[in-house]
Every structure is written in structure tokens, then in C-alpha cells.
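Before going further, learn to read the protein records used in this course. Taken together, the C-alpha cells spell out the fold as the letters spell out the chain. A record is reproduced here so that you can trace the correspondence yourselves:

***
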Amino acid sequence: MDVKEVTTMAQSSDDELANLRAQRMAQIQAQLEEQAAAQADAELQQENQQAAMAELDSAMKRILTPDARSRLASLNLVNPELTTRVKTHLATLSSENRIATPVNDIQLKRILGGLSEGRRETSIRRI
């Protein structure tokens, strides 16, 4: 092998390596862009959910008495999904003028009982 062949092989190898590096950099850049877009979408969705919850909370201040709001806050600690369902149900009823406001604690208990009817009560009897 003479010096020219070694130089061209080294150049060829360097060109291949540079090509592979460029491809890998392009892949990494594309992955970073995808991750950034996904994160932006998630943040936007979270902001929308927070805005909806804030709107529901402000509606509850108009719809419920302080005692009923306290009961709903306690329920939220135990079962947040049921609380969200109750809030949306109350907001819908209120917007359609199908419920007298403000809703007191006793009325809220009835509403909660109505929404929880799907659950079966279990009892243990000793023989």
C-alpha cells in the first residue's frame, strides 16, 4: 500500500464516520422535538383540566352552602372521581335551573345517595 491508498481509505473512513454522526444527530434532534411536542401537549391538557376544575369550584361556591361544600371537600379526599361526577352533575342541574340553589347538606346527601345507588350494601351476619 502506498501513501495515497492509505490517505483515501482514511478519508473514506472519516467521511463514513461523519455521515453516521450526522445521521445520529438528526435522529436525536427528531426525538427531542417529538418529546418537546408531547410535553407541550400534556401541559396544555393539564392547564385545560385545571381551568375546568377551577370553573367547577367557583360554580360550587354559588350552588352549595358552606356545610355542603365541606361535605364535598371531605368526599374529595376519599373519592375524587365521585366528587368530580357530583360537581359536574350539580353544575348541569344548576345551569338548566332544575335544582333550587343553594343546595344544603341534606339535599347533597340525597344527591350523593342517588349517584351511589349502583353500589351494593354488604352485611355480615354471625350464625
